[in-house]
Amino acid sequence: MLRRISFAWRVFATYFAFLVFNVGGLIAAISAIAVCRAIPGSPERKTQRAQRVIHAMFAGFIGILVCLGLLTHSRKELARLRSTPASLVIANHPTLLDVVFLISCMPRVDCVIKEAVWNNVFMRATVRGAGYIPNRDGAELVDACVERLALGHHVLLFPEGTRSPAGGLRRFQRGAARIALRSRCDILPILIRCEPPTLLKGMPIFRVPPRRPHWSLTIQETISASAFLENGAETPLAARKLTERLEEFYEERLGCRCG
Asked: Which terminus of the chain has fewer Cβ atoms in its 10 Å neighbourhood, N or C?
């Protein structure tokens, strides 16, 4: 009986939480971003304020989910993200909440987002105000990310491009490797696990797992792109080799294959 009551509560709380996120959060974000943009200051300062607002709201949303009993989480050494020099932050992408968790740990980060989100009538004011980077043409994306890294920013992207298939990984796109090689920056990998699996690609948001899921986010050692440069320069072969290394890195730690 207690198990049934607990499950029924999590179903109700899930509906409530995503209503808060999609309606209340959207209204609050648009209002807060508008205020951030209206306060005098340079474009850089306005973007910083907007990113901090989104960081605080995502951290608050994770707190709500925990208080409602919908999930637990552990974030090992992610405090290092606040003190690490400008780097390309990458992660595997098993669930819908991955970007929420990561931005909740990073007060300032330039996040690569889908162009559909960039153009979405409900979300474009927020993501544009925060200076996020649309995932457009490959060359344009690389140039934008290299520029942000040169300014001393963190850049966050998911090499798979979208959420992972159940129990596996998608083939990594070469954008992350090209950005790292061009900028000569370190790659900072983050490993994300969720058990039991939930909020997967193609899974309805309100399909509640049989028990409360646990997210584990662990920062890994940095990977230097310098060793992959061909005669000190970025080349298609160097990008391919570095991409293969990143795939192997995640396959070894997650015990699955890209495909």
From this structure: N
Output the CATH code of domain 2-254. 3.40.1130
State pTM to two decimals. Answer: 0.91
Element (H, E) at 133: strand 133-135
Contact 165, 92 (CB under 8 A): no
Please say whether the beta carbons of 158 and 93 come within 8 A.
Answer: yes
Instruction: Give domain limits for the chain.
Output: 2-254
CA pair distance 148, 123, nearest whole angstrom: 22
Report the b/e string of 48-76 with b at 16+ CB within 10 A.
bbbbebbbebbeebbeebeebebbebebe
Element (H, E) at 104: helix 98-104
- Express each pLDDT in 39-71 by its tens digit: 888 888 889 988 998 999 899 999 999 999 999
- Are 185 and 165 in contact, with CB atoms under 8 Å apart? no
Return d(Cα 186, Cα 225) in angstroms, integer: 6
